[in-house]
Every structure is written in structure tokens, then in C-alpha cells.
Amino acid sequence: MKTIERTLVFVGLLSLSALFIYALQDAPTDENFEKKLINGYNVYALQVPQDLNFAGEPVPLKDPDVYERMDRELLVNTYWQSNGLLMFKRAKKYFPTIEPILKKYGVPDDFKYLAVIESGLVNVVSPAGARGVWQIMPATAKENGLEVNDNVDERYHLEKSTEVACKYLLKSKRELGSWTLAAAAYNAGNYGISRRLKEQRVTDYYDLLLGEETGRYMFRIVALKEILSNPDTYGFNFREKDLYSDVPTYTVSLDTAVTDFSKFAQNFGINYKILKIHNPWLREPHLINKSRKKYDISIPKAGYYQ
Hints:
Pfam families: SLT. Belongs to the transglycosylase Slt family. By secondary structure, the chain is mainly alpha-helical. It folds into two domains: 53-242, Lysozyme, CATH 1.10.530.50; 249-300. The chain contains twelve helices and six strands. It has helices at 2-25, 30-37, 64-79, 81-105, 112-119, 138-143, 158-176, 179-188, 190-200, 212-229, 261-266, 272-278, and strands at 53-54, 57-58, 124-125, 131-132, 249-254, 295-300. Strands 1-2 form a two-stranded antiparallel sheet. A two-stranded antiparallel ribbon has the order 3-4.
């Protein structure tokens, strides 16, 4: 029995030695780490760029807390590959509409990435009642001249809602003093950001202790800006033809009621679904228009849906 025990102990020691030697051979040296990076799909740490900024205002990455939070958002948005590819595809379609409006109002181009994190560049509805690509609340929309009711909701009108977002952001910049704080206020409100700055006796977004959503807000914007600006760096591979393109349209103006948009659409060689795709602000299959207000309806040019 003792001989068997000694033999088992000896075999066990040999096995442990072999495992130890194997572990040393397979240790993550710089050399085999580099080899793994080129052998198919691997998950690896990202290098956080040291010159990240929003609207020309630098992200203070020397602060270890800021660095970790920035690293988190870069990782989350890089490795959420399906969502990332959709953002590239939609950006190609919608940025050409958003960019000139931002420029017209003197709002930095970086704010187009705010729309990306607000809605993913689709017309969504928040639990609080915000709607559209820019997630505008009813009161803000009406204060800035948008029509909001069951029949027509211009928060779904990309050009008009982008103009309202610009006005809101300019007001926030005047009140809060920086574009970074203005962007954060788009999420938490001017009063909310101003109150927290006073309570915590700081003047910068990155010095604030905030709740989860607003605390991640600017880091998410900067991460999406970095990734969408550098697809190759973050492993996104696509061709120009893989991206979505906007369908050219022309405008039909009307100042009367429309009893049936299905029939209206047929007059232009399209169906109701296509009419709604290009005019999502028309919320019902008819237009009441008792005031004889002028509306511009977008109609796709011929040949794109055939």
C-alpha cells in the first residue's frame, strides 16, 4: 500500500511539474500577445488616446477616475460591434442633414455625436415623453415653435428638431460657460447642472459627482466621436456601399386638409409606408389643418423604391 501511495505521489508531482512548465511556456509575453492579435478574433485592451476632446475642450485624462471612465466607454462601444456598425451606417445617411444646420447656428460639429447617443439616429420615444432623433420634450418643442399634437409632431422632423436642439444648446452655453457643460445639460437640464456645480463647488463637468446616466453622458459622446472618426483603429471594416444613403426627395407644399394619405401617396407613385418614412412627423393617416397652415411634404424621387 505504501509503495502504491509513493507511486501516486510521484506521478502527481510529475503532473504538476508538467503543468507548471506548460504555464510558463504559455505565459502572455509581448511576443505571443502580438501573435494573438493577428490570429482571428481576440478581445484586447484599447489604448486611450491622450488628446481626446469635445468641441475643442480637452478631456482631463490625467485624472485617474476620468481615464477609467473614458476607457470603459471606449471598450463598451467598441465591443458592441453590431450597434457600432449600425451607427456608421446611419451616420452616413443622417449626418449630411445635421452638419450644415449645426454650422448655420454656430454649434460645434461634435454635437452630432450627441444625437447618436440620444437616439441611435432613429426616431425613438423615451419613458419621459421625449421624442425624435434629438429626444426633445413637448414643452421645449412648443417653446421653440414646433407643432406638437396627435396629428402633427414636428419633433420627428429632422431639420426642424435639429434647429431646436441648436437653440437649446446655445442657451445652455451662454448660461453654463462651456460646450461640455451645455452638452451635459442636454441630459440633465440647465438647472440640474447649475445646481450641482454650486452644491459641489466646482466649475467643470469632469469634477462633478453625478448619477449614472449624466455621469456617463459626456464619456459616451466622446467615445462615439472617437470610434466613428477612426473605424480602422477600432476594428470596424466596411465599404462605402455598405453604408446607408438618404433617398433624394422633392417638396410638395399644401395648405389644405388631407383626408387620406394612402390616396395622397398613390398620386405620387408611392405608398403610405414610404410617405411616412420620409415624413415621420405626420402622425395620423390624415391631416386636419383647420388653420390652413402650409406644410412641406417630402416625396422621394422616382426610381428609388422600384
